[in-house]
Every structure is written in structure tokens, then in C-alpha cells.
Specification:
Chains A, B: This is Probable nitronate monooxygenase. Chains A, B: Keywords: Dioxygenase, Flavoprotein, FMN, Oxidoreductase. 2 copies of one chain form a homodimer. By secondary structure, the first copy, chain A, is of the alpha/beta class. Chain A has helices at residues 4-9, 26-34, 49-62, 81-89, 103-108, 123-132, 155-165, 179-187, 197-200, 210-218, 241-251, 256-259, 265-272, 297-318, and strands at residues 15-17, 39-42, 67-72, 94-98, 115-120, 136-140, 146-147, 170-173, 192-195, 224-227, 235-238. In chain A, the strands form 2 sheets. Chain A has an 8-stranded parallel sheet. The longest helix of chain A is centred in the last third of the chain and has 22 residues, at 297-318.
Chain lengths: 321, 321
Amino acid sequence: MKTRVTKLLNIQYPIVQGGLAHLAYAELASAVSNAGGLGQITAMTLGEGEKLRKEIRKTKELTQNPYGVNFAIGQHATSYEELLEVVIEEEVPVISVTGANPKPIFERLQGEKVKKLVLVANVRQAQKAESLGADAVMAVGNEGGGHLGRDEVGTVVLIPRVVQSVSIPVLASGGIGTGRGLLAALALGADGIEMGTRFIATKECVHAHQTYKKALLASSEQDTVIIKKTWGAPGRVLKSVYTNHIIQREREGATYEDLKESVSGEANKKYIYEGEEDKGFGWAGQVVGLIDSVPSVQELIVNMIEEARHGAEDVYKMFEN
Amino acid sequence: MKTRVTKLLNIQYPIVQGGLAHLAYAELASAVSNAGGLGQITAMTLGEGEKLRKEIRKTKELTQNPYGVNFAIGQHATSYEELLEVVIEEEVPVISVTGANPKPIFERLQGEKVKKLVLVANVRQAQKAESLGADAVMAVGNEGGGHLGRDEVGTVVLIPRVVQSVSIPVLASGGIGTGRGLLAALALGADGIEMGTRFIATKECVHAHQTYKKALLASSEQDTVIIKKTWGAPGRVLKSVYTNHIIQREREGATYEDLKESVSGEANKKYIYEGEEDKGFGWAGQVVGLIDSVPSVQELIVNMIEEARHGAEDVYKMFEN
């Protein structure tokens, strides 16, 4: 199929895999790219330049198609300069920036051929990203997993607002994990989707513990909650005794410093790598309510495109009468 | 056009106007029905049976098309028995029930020809409504104006979940006010939409004060907030000094009894009828970010259908290549 996103990124289907801290490595990224979408490696959770280089080279061995590297440069992130040099040296075709102002990264990339995507949560951020030279924005609605905007604007409103506010292509993110969801994103004027949570529940997301995958299947759309809201950095996670406790502490006035360890990457890994439900947490969007299988990435994408294609026909016919 | 909802309600376009407390009377309801949608009169805010009868008869004079009567039977609502008898006597073609269990209303309507719609905010309520005999459900996502579900599930996830959980038609509600929004609802598997806030900013919503209409145009999708959340009855309103004060009081532990007058129908009317911003509030959904005109209802619906039709063609073509 063809949209501005498939043309921009030179991919078959307008589906970009999200950055997925601690989970987005060569196996998953290459599977998504081989299936016609754009897979991504997470740079920041790899930490060191040589580790990133190894992961990029592994990805290049596993796929001939375009892929991306994600930079999650949120407020408590470490430095990325070394990682960025590796991206340039390895001639990575696409990067995405999430969590903060992409300006310093874009400045370093000037003159390089790499395509630049930016995750935004409101119109102002989208316009800023466009003015800085982003090739496309990924707009995330309140349904999404992981870090979100502070205004709680739902995907169904956010996407058309961003689409009417920028000229570059828009990828819809937040609450999308099916062919019907992809179709709705296109209906709202997006040129494609970014999808995170849904890709965790695939065979090729080899780093996610079975406990985490099973929880994604078992959870309903009512089973996610938002942590870190009181500090202005809301993030959606699976509801659990552990995450309920964080929220309770926040309500009682706990600061970031108080709960730093409980919300850290280490606590995240305790759950998503080791399945220790009482020692950590897992990011997840409301789309968990629509996840009930762990297919291969290839199966997932083929099924989504078929479902979207049939849905497009059905909807088109409604207007013919 | 044709969907299960147009067939069920015998209307031209699958667009149902929401109940709109204090604003949904004969002028608006007949305009929506004349434009091919389903207009509704609000029963509960009329209060007395004979007042409702007068409004129904006025509506019948103004349109030959089907119309509905809404019963908002939330927790602090008054009794509706007398109003329901009038609906039966006047042979109203459609009723909708919002805010609570429709069982007692449905029991009284047994054997009557009236079609029954129910507003729901989660799968459990939708299944309950179906089992009680609802002809269709209207599922409202977290983006919506007025009273919402407690789980903050966005429209883009809630609609496909409800569609897969019931056999009766589903109308999508929450965040929809454009042709693209209608198209997205159909893409998600809905058979139509319920739309509230968008209809307030029309010429025929004659009871809404200019101050309220102007505020709907001026507001962005970031300019709504939720009141009454701490009491388990969240409702989305326009952000203002007045509504911020309510939220602040709630945070400090104020009870419903403490703030009863501030959140009452009288306070609502102070703002929406008289434009007194410091004495009351107005319900509104996040869709205010997409509202920038006050057209006639006929113009609004014609434009929405055209936009949706063109969008359906555009999206369909994306899959052809």
C-alpha cells in the first residue's frame, strides 16, 4: 500500500514499531522491517556506543529493509552523543526521538541522510518538531503505553488536530494494535501508525518475560494506570499491586527522589525481564484490551493489513447507497 | 448511506444527537432529524410531563422524520415515571437512557414499539444493556463531554472492544465532531456516532448563550477538565476559573454535599443560559479542539457526510496500490 509514510521511509506498510525501552533489539526490529514495517532498535537502553553498533550490525544481517534507531531522551536519560556518532557511522536510515526537544540531535545530523521522526503529544510540540526539520511526527494519544502528554487528549481528537497543524506526515500512536485501528488512524488523516505495546506480545520480542506477555493477554482496557503523573511525567503501565502502591505514595505527596528506585529502568527490567511482579512494573497502553494472541510479527502485520483492507471496503460501501 | 443504525432508526445518516441537558429541545432535535440524523429532546431537564408533551408536539410539527427522547437518569436525577407515560402516549419512536441502569424504563416499555438506545462507558454495561433488550448502545470514550466512565478508556480502544462484545449495533461517542471522526468510528466497527458538544455550536441550539458557543470555538483540545471525579461521577467540562476551583476543592477533600450547588443544574444553567462565567460551568468534550464554526445543523451534517465520503475514497485507494 501507499501513503506519504511508506514513500518517506521506503517501506511496504505504514507501521512503525515504537522505541520500547529494554525490549527493542535486533530480533524484533528486523522482524518488523522484514514484514514490511519499520523496526527500531532502542539506543538509550543499550547505553554504550559499541553495544549499539553490535545491535545495528546484527539488524543489518537480519534484514535488507530500512530500520530505525530510537533515542528516548526524557528528563532522567543519560547522554547520547556517543550513540549518535555510531548511528551516523553505520548509516542508519531512520532515527526517532522521543521524550524531549530533538534540537541538539537534529543539529548534529545536519547534512546526514538519516530520516528523522519525533514523538509528540500535542500540537505545539508537533509544530516545533516540523520547524526543527522533522520528516514526520508520531502523535501519541492518552491511550498509549509509556510516557504520555500531560493533557490527557485522546487519539481520536489529537490526530486530526496534529494533521491540520503540520504539513509533514503524521503517524498515529496510542491505542492502536489491530487492522481496524490502523484504518481508523488513516481515516483521521494520519499517514500511518506507530505501535508499541502490540509488538511486545509477539514471538520475536524475545526479551519480554512470559509473565509480562501473559499479563498483556489477560489484561482488559481497564487494567492500565498512570504513574509519575504528580511529577508532570505521566506514564501508562499495567495495573498491579506494585503500580497501585506507587500511585498511592504519589497521592500522599512522595517526590521523584522518594520513589526514584521504584520507577527506575532497573525496576522496569525486574518485571519485564524476570517476571518479578512484586519488584517492578511494565509499560502498557489501553490497547491491551485488544490483545489476545502472541503471533509472529509477520502474522501480526499480514493480518492487520488484511483486516484494514477489508474494513476499508466495508466502510467505503456504506457510502455507496 | 446505509448502516445497521440507519436501518434500525429509519434515518438517512447514522448520526444521533446527544441528550444535552438543558439544551436539547424541539428546535435542535427537529433540525437534526430534518438533516437526516436523529435529533433528541431531553426529558429530565423538562421535568414535568406536560412540558415534555408540549416539546414533543412542537418537534412533530417541525419534522416528519424519526426523533428521540433522552432520559438522563444519573444518581441525582429526579423521577421519570410521568415523563415516560407521555413518551408512550405520544408514540415517540426512539428513547435513549443515559447515566444509570435502564431496567425499570425498559420494563415499562415492554410491548411498546419504541426503539431503545443506552449510553455505556464499558463492555460490562454494554453487555448488560443488550441483555435487557437495548436495540443499540452508544459507547462513550474518555474524550467525551459530560458524564463519563471511571476507567478513562479512550474512544479508539473502547469502540472496538464494545463492538466485539455485543451483537447489537454500536454508536461511537466521545471526541467526534467531523466527517473524519465519523469515518474513524465506522473504521473501528461502529455503525454510527452519537455527537453532543458539536451540536451545541450550531445555529439551532438556540438555548446556548453566545458566551458558551464562543468558548467552544476558542477552546483547544487541552482546554477541558474533569469535575466530580473524586466522587466517582466524572464529567468533562470547559476549563475555567470556576471549574478549576471545583477541582481544587475536590483535591482538598470536599464532598458532594459540600459542592452540591456548584455542580448543580442551576449552576450549569447560569453559564450556558446566561453566560455568567463566574457562577457556573458548561459541559464540553475534547472535540472542542476541532470546532471552529457555528453552522446550521443542515450545513454541519451535509459537510460531515461529504468529508467522510471523500475520506473513505482516499483511504480505500491507499490499499489499492
